[in-house]
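Input record (Table S2, row 393):
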Amino acid sequence: MITTDQTVQTFLDFFGERGHELTPGGTLIPSPADPVLFTTSGMHPLTPYLMGRPHPLGRRLTGSQRCLRTTDLDEVGDDTHLTVFEMLGSWSLGDYGGSRSLRWGFELLRDGFGIDPGRMHVTVFGGDDHVEPDHESWRTWEELGVPVEPTTDENWWDNGPTGLCGPDSEIFVWTGDELPRGTPTSEERWVEVWNHVMMRYVRHPDGSLEPMRQPCIDTGMGLERLVRILQNTQSVFEIDILRPWLSTLSRIWGPLDERSLRLLSDHLRSSIVVLGDRVTPSPSGRGHILRRLIRRTLTTLWRDDPTRTLLDLPIELVDHTLGHFRQSVPSRDVRTLLLAEERKFDLLLQRGRKVLSHRRFSGPLTGDDYHYLHDTHGLPRDLVVYLTTDAER
Ligand code: SER
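Output record (serine complex):
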């Protein structure tokens, strides 16, 4: 069975053999000019080069980039979502076009990873009032014999209201036990693995689309989702690099329901990676996201048993994660920061419980109560909600 590391290598070798240079990838922290807090996709660090600046490594690039997405936090615990994940990517900076990219994508999935084309389905941009359908991608897939579903919004990629954008084509693989059925938008066992974006336009603040002088191709493939398919596991949490998390956490903190176990594995692993990129918990910015992840971990952990503690987290899991992401921060420092945050949150909860035990807060809380608790006692609304629902249990 192919491992996660071998999957990365197979991908990078495939594009390397086709003239793509390896980008450094790595850190979750974007460059200072970038307005977002964390890198959210493989193309992120390449934005200036996709916009036209010459890249020192040339016009064909490939790489593996760790990413963090908190937009899907409530989905974590299902079969496919992770907060920190890796994205494999290939890029043509004004070099080859969409058809070339899709054909290579098909070849790699079929011959490199052994995925049966009968288990593939794709979606393409079917056109809207402003842009015509992506005929080139559509035709390419028809020539390759892969079923196509056209959509509108779901096959238009952008990075916000302005900037780079264009139609995309997504490749899905069937994960059901029986024969494939339905289409990607109608049947959730079609799992998206690879997105090929044809970056053809820049959107201006007035909403107009300007065709790019040098259109680019940006592809991104979620590594853990691909490995889930290659290792034929029920969810991303059972692939080789995540399995030790589930088995260890259920040993030290079990019994836990499956969803909580997955959430704890995801959030703790993500917190370690963020700490490994030298972010520390704080009330705002990146540190706040980290704090949220750690606190969600702790509230899940303490829900059934308040005596559970991160002190029991084996250092080997921290090492395993930092090692996988090639992060050089010592694991004991990461552990110390996690424990300090646990202590801080525990004290805050104790204080919160004391304040909330006052008669004034015995009935349903009003908007004014929430303001007062926040401004005078430093108790954020979500924490108060947690404590009041906790008290009712
Ligand atoms: N930018 C695209 C995505 O995030 C492909 O890399 O899906």
